[in-house]
Amino acid sequence: EKAAMDPAVALVLCLSCLLLLSLWRQSSGRGKLPPGPTPLPIIGNILQLDIKDISECLSNLSKAYGPVFTVYLGMERAVVLHGYEAVKEALIDHGEEFSGRGSFPVFERVTRGHGIIFSNGNRWKEIRRFSLMTLRNFGMGKRSIEECVQEEARCLVEELRKTKGSPCDPTFILSCAPCNVICSIVFRDHFDYTDQDFINLMKKFDENHRIMSSPWIQVYNNMPTLIDYLPGSHNKLFKNFAYIENYVLEKVKEHQESLDINNPQDFIDCFLVKMEQEKQNPQSEFTTENLLATIIDVFGAGTETTSTTLRYGLLLLLKHPEVTAKVREEIDRVVGRHRSPCMQDKSRMPYTDAVVHEIQRYIDLVPTNLPHAVTCDTKFRNYLIPKGTTIITLLTSALHDDKEFPNPEMFDPGHFLDECGNFRKSDYFMPFSAGKRICVGEGLARMELFLFLTTILQNFTLKSLVDPEDIDTIPIVSGLARVPPSYKLCFIPV
To answer: Which residues are involved in binding heme (predicted)?
Structure first.
């Protein structure tokens, strides 16, 4: 009898402690925090938020509580910033204070705070500076990054030719291309799209991306300690990451054997050179752990995002044939048929440039941004935000601002053109975030989107299987990133 009591008593005690802790955390510092809906113990405001479309719910809450408000995601307190002004003020004007990375338990389990996306402090600064330099063509051997992307664009076109104009779902092919660009930058290896290693790697990333977008992971992120002991898709996620990490580790070993310190050929070589230079420094951030985590970050951040944007972009071009016709006209006029498009063409192609921007603005890929955190107690608009508080910046509120972009729910390249048809820059365009944590791969991603889309349209006519009127472009809603509905199309050679 007594033995049966103990676990129950322990459980009640544990829950009572949790309850008290959560009440205490919610009340402490409540006075100076921004306003917000009243949280329940332990679960916070979870019931007020639709897990299927968090950004929509947060935008609605801002109508009641203003541009700066507090919500509780489980026991985690988060301050939400809505609207261009608030987001800019935090990420740009107060960049240093808002440059922390908010907690993301799923990833912390994987990267343990290493790498670039989920690191903080000095480690983050060093690894970020190194990655930016390296992604800007330093030490990439003979080929520039632009040449890597152009070569991949040619492979992509060859692959699309093999469909012989019959209906296909472009998802897989469009994922191969950005993934392969990262492979050529990181490993200097360019895989055939049928290579088994490459397909396995792609499968793991794709599976992880799906799991990451599921409601279960939102639950995990809010109550990680509880769920670590439960079965569920997070276990598959960790297994996949272990597979990827092993694969990368093998590659790093090969690189160590063939390294020529005076002539690094790719990202791994550059990192190994840096490790060599700093081997006397016990505090050095250039460690194998950081190398592995950074490579996984670069793949994770650079594959799915770009391929989803391309896939969504083609869907929008199918839906708006009049836009596609104008882009093709510009390609014919500026590039012609007989050479590959290059980045220099962009300045003479304002309409195409506007279309690429409008695709990114319209699809609003990561509406809530990755979570930030304040690096110290921060005074912001008369509120006091305690050090370490999670900050959610609603990028969607800048991208869909109706004064800056009239009719923001419409897909209209005119949002980025002036009355004379010249390209119009906008500060509200922040699909890559803004400030000190702006996406490290922004330059690469923009290059890929421009070169891939122009090269595809230079070589193919896109043919929809349904009347453009009937094409649905509303995302099948998801957690961290928005995903377009699945569709098929025909690539008809020009």
So the answer is: 439
Nearest to 339 by CA among 209, 212, 451: 451
d(CA 222, CA 41): 13
Asked whether residue 2 is assigned to any structural domain, the reply reads no
Exposure letters 320-338 (e unless 16+ CB within 10 A, then b): beebbebbbebbeebbeee
**Does 62 map to a domain?**
yes
Of residues 365, 359, 353, the one with CA closest to residue 396:
365
The predicted-structure confidence for 418-446, as pLDDT tens digits, reads as follows 999 999 999 999 999 999 999 999 999 99
Domain hosting residue 249, numbered range: 30-493
CA distance 434 to 81: 13
d(CA 63, CA 489): 40
Give how far the C-alpha of residue 245 lies from the chain's centroid of Cα atoms, to the nearest Å. Answer: 20
Entry pTM:
0.91
Q: How far apart are CA 493 and CA 168, in angstroms?
A: 14
The residue type at 186 = V
DSSP 3-state of 62: helix
Q: What is the CATH number of the domain that holds 358?
A: 1.10.630.10
Task: Report the half-sphere exposure of 21 (CA within 13 A, side-chain side).
Answer: 11
168 is in an annotated binding site: no
Is 25 within a domain? Answer: no
pLDDT one-digit tens code per residue, 353-411? 999 999 999 999 999 999 999 999 999 999 999 999 999 999 999 999 999 999 999 99
Sequence-ordered list of residues with C-beta below 8 angstroms from that of 13, at least 6 positions apart, any chain = none
Total count of domains within the chain: 1
